[in-house]
Amino acid sequence: MKPASLYIHLPFCQAKCGYCDFNSYAGLESLYEDYGQALGRELEMAGPLRLRTAYVGGGTPTVLPPEILGRILEKVAPSLVAGAELTVEANPGTVDARKLVHLRAMGVTRLSLGIQSFSNQELRLLGRVHTSDEALESLRQARLAGFGNINLDLIYGLPGQSQDGWQSTLEQALAQRPEHLSLYALSVEAGTPLEASIALGMAPEPNPDLAAEMYEYAQSLLAMAGYQHYEISNWARGEDNYCQHNLVYWRNEPYLGIGAGAHSWAGGLRRANVAAPAEYVSRQLADRCPVGSEESIDPVLEMGETMMMGLRLVEEGVEYARFQDRFGADLRQLYWSELSELAGLGLVEIGDERVRLSGRGRLLGNQVFLHFLPE
Prior knowledge:
Layout: E1 5-10, E2 12-13, E3 25-26, H1 32-45, E4 51-58, H2 66-76, E5 80-90, H3 97-105, E6 110-116, H4 120-126, H5 132-144, E7 150-156, H6 163-175, E8 180-185, H7 193-199, H8 208-224, E9 228-231, E10 234-236, H9 244-250, E11 256-258, E12 263-266, E13 269-273, H10 277-285, E14 291-296, H11 299-310, E15 318-319, H12 320-327, H13 331-334, H14 336-344, E16 348-350, E17 354-357, H15 359-363, H16 365-369
Parallel strand pairs: 1-4, 1-11, 2-3, 4-5, 5-6, 6-7, 7-8
Antiparallel strand pairs: 8-10, 9-10, 12-13, 13-14, 15-17, 16-17
Helix pairs in contact: 1-2, 1-10, 6-8
């Protein structure tokens, strides 16, 4: 099955956030122009595509000058089918009215703003390049530019963050009536400045029990505000505002990734491009393959990953009929021992049409997912 979804990675940032271990870099402005050309070549190499979704992420795509980002989007446009979802990630500190109008004019249908917090103290802790006021102004300008589908990224479980502080950020976010919210628990990644600060006692250890309480509070508050909790970390104001691109990942469907470090999955093969932006550009402009690694995914692993990803979908879960159509197997028979154990622990619900996580299972998702991966 040919991928109908495209991910484009732009690994550039104005400044590297202290908690981030993504494939992203500050200070590579000299690569912007050549990187855009390299992306165009990789897209041409992929051949004709009919895309239902395209997602431009990073890094911070909006650090690029509008003309370079515009040329990238122009390359993608002919492959988009009618009604396709085109998402671009943005940092409030790197957009203004002109950039937002330009993005909308280029056909971007969905804007994902990395707000992270409405507390200036927390933003400084995270190393963000924007303030709370700038976040609110970027939202206002996005509405004026014509965006009717906006996602806000927020992070909870920060070192020193209180329940009251998290409540304040959530309430300020809801006051803006975004169509979509993505709420992520902070993960302290190895090798990041945040990890070093915690190790040196300059910042307190995050409290996992408090983070769980923050998550449960968010579930309750967003439900009262009319948001549908459709994935462990994602809420939307109605099904029309679900992120269609991310649904491809959660359903373990094929997708194409282009750019430095981007991953692709199709036809039993997972590939990853070389991560270093300069090497990626060098390979592409010399007409050399940008793939740095690949892995064959056998049917047993594909089925396990389909369970693992699908269980992230709060209401949909993994549907028996969809699984049967794809693999020719009844997941209830295939995973009977695993499902029986997890149901006995109160972590999954086995229904007539699907299996899905229980409320408790959503708090312990990673422990559940391990049951479906081959040893």
